[in-house]
Amino acid sequence: MADILEQVKAAIEGPIDFPSQKWTEDVMTYTLSAGAILSCAVGFLTQRLNVLIYVFVASILLCLLVVVPPWPQYNRSAPVKWLEPQVPKFE
């Protein structure tokens, strides 16, 4: 069982740089917001709650498809060059 979980974890996890983290957060926010507005509009126009739910679930699945997999474009920026740690001087 642990081997299966490790394989799933390896398939989902992937390196992502800082600009891509911001981009995926923005995509997630805009996709879910637009999906909520669209699903409410479609549900209101059709007067059917199940249509509202289906449209919103479709927007969630679209968001998951774009954001969750470790796409190669999420790691295009150069790695961050960290500063060397400095030891504080106590006098």
UniProtKB/TrEMBL annotation:
Going by the UniProt record, its keywords in alphabetical order are:
Endoplasmic reticulum, Membrane, Transmembrane, Transmembrane helix
Primary location: endoplasmic reticulum
Give the source's domain of life in one word. Eukaryota
Q: Which residues are listed as membrane-spanning?
A: 27-45, 52-71
What GO cellular component is one of the record's annotations? signal peptidase complex
Q: Name the membrane topology term.
A: Multi-pass membrane protein
Keyword flag DNA repair: no
Picking any one GO biological process from the record gives: signal peptide processing
Keyword Transmembrane present in the record's keywords: the answer is: yes
Q: Which residues form the signal peptide?
A: none
Question: Where is this protein found?
Answer: Endoplasmic reticulum membrane
Stated role: Component of the signal peptidase complex (SPC) which catalyzes the cleavage of N-terminal signal sequences from nascent proteins as they are translocated into the lumen of the endoplasmic reticulum. Dispensable for SPC enzymatic activity.
Q: Which family does it belong to?
A: Belongs to the SPCS1 family.
What name goes with this protein?
Signal peptidase complex subunit 1
